[in-house]
Amino acid sequence: NAMLPILTGYGGRDYVPYCTGCSLCNAAGQGGGSGGGGGGPSIPSAVTVTTASLSAAVSACFAENAAGNCQCSGASCGVLSGPISQWSFTGTNLDMGSLFEGRTTFNQPVGSWDVSGATSMKKMFKNASSFNQPIGGWDTSSVIDMTEMFAGATAFARDISGWDVDQVTTYTDMFDGADAFNAKYSCTGPKCSG
Predict the structure, then answer these.
(1) Which of 123, 124, 169 has the alpha carbon at shortest distance from 145?
(2) Which residues form a coiled coil (predicted)?
(3) For 160, phi and psi rounded to 5 degrees?
(4) What is the mean pLDDT of residues 163-179?
């Protein structure tokens, strides 16, 4: 698995997938951070979603509660129900781009979500300035676009070094303005220079 190139291209240049052999390290040199999937109990049966039905469910959740702390009872969130942290779904070729973009008070635990069918996470948490939940256990092996995924997510500072990013082709500005993350982590290794 390729390691995520953390600061390669820092300063607005493109994040490029050539940081093989790098490791995510705490800026103080102690390694890692808090990681893991986390996120609450799992629901036994998963609902199959499409990009449209997932996006509609997330929008309905935020219509119910601006911070994403929704209950989604009945069919209020379409095919998904219950708190957003407990949603159990699967899907293929999912575009999760902009799902939480601009949701400045969103900080719900979504680490248990099955994102293995996602192909895009472009701008997923862009400007979600309160988000700082553990998502290090996500299966990102199908994702090809992580452009601006955490841009402006000023609170996010979780360890995502275990992500499989072999398929990712675009990292442009992935951590641009992600102040807490950029202060805590650095990319180390022979191919990490800018």
Answers:
(1) 169
(2) none
(3) -125, 25
(4) 91
